[in-house]
Amino acid sequence: DQQVKQNSPSLSVQEGRISILNCDYTNSMFDYFLWYKKYPAEGPTFLISISSIKDKNEDGRFTVFLNKSAKHLSLHIVPSQPGDSAVYFCAALDSGTYKYIFGTGTRLKVLA
Amino acid sequence: DSGVTQTPKHLITATGQRVTLRCSPRSGDLSVYWYQQSLDQGLQFLIQYYNGEERAKGNILERFSAQQFPDLHSELNLSSLELGDSALYFCASSVVTGTNTEAFFGQGTRLTVV
């Protein structure tokens, strides 16, 4: 059973516009969420995180929003740049089992 | 550079063989995680160690085993290899376990079973 879901396998956005990547989770016990970026032939790189006590966290061009009642989080990238083209993974930390549970990823393509 | 080192980067081996993947965590990190990524799929959690002890287990096959040594490096042993074991294997480390902190990933080992 997929506890963290990224239902959009891919997304294309024009350079300079906003990219919105979405993630849903099923376990209400998750209390910490992370986004990772992955380039081909490299390991995932930590991007930004949010605790369940917050609904928004911002770091430069990246903002993560958390809607606990809907069990939904999203990553906004503004403005999008060609270098942002990568696979983005959403993850949740299950502090009960100490596991980071990942979604299947969304491939973002930013068009110049 | 995440500070997590995985060796080797690439491994090609035959079915039925056994291989060992090695991971050195970031300095000071006590937790080590192993993940498998097959064919551009998601990251499947295999196993986690904290300060030398197994802490959590995912869908890890019985043919696979891992350990974390006193110097905190970890090894993932894959035996009786099958074609379907071909995948990217990632190691990650974090400072502590169960708290709000991020894990840092190595570059991965690409295993090809022929």
Describe it for me?
The complex is a heterodimer of chains A (112) and B (114). Chain A has 112 residues and is mainly β. Chain A contains no helices and eleven strands. In chain A, the strands form two sheets. In chain A, strands 2, 4, 5, 9, 10 and 11 form a six-stranded mixed beta sheet that branches. A five-stranded antiparallel beta sheet of chain A has the order 1-3-8-7-6, with no helix packed on it. The mean pLDDT of chain A is 94. Chain B starts with a strand and ends with a strand. Chain B has strands spanning 5-7, 10-13, 19-24, 31-37, 43-50, 53-57, 64-68, 74-78, 87-94, 104-105, 109-113. Chain B is mainly beta and 114 residues long. In chain B, the strands form two sheets. In chain B, strands 2, 4, 5, 6, 9, 10 and 11 form a seven-stranded mixed beta sheet that branches. Chain B has a four-stranded antiparallel beta sheet with strand order 1-3-8-7, with no helix packed on it. Helix content of chain B is 0%, strand content 51%. The A-B interface holds A 31-32, 34, 36, 41-46, 49, 51, 87, 89, 91, 93, 95-105 and B 2, 4, 6, 31, 33, 35, 40-45, 48, 50, 55-56, 58, 90, 92, 97-100, 102-108.
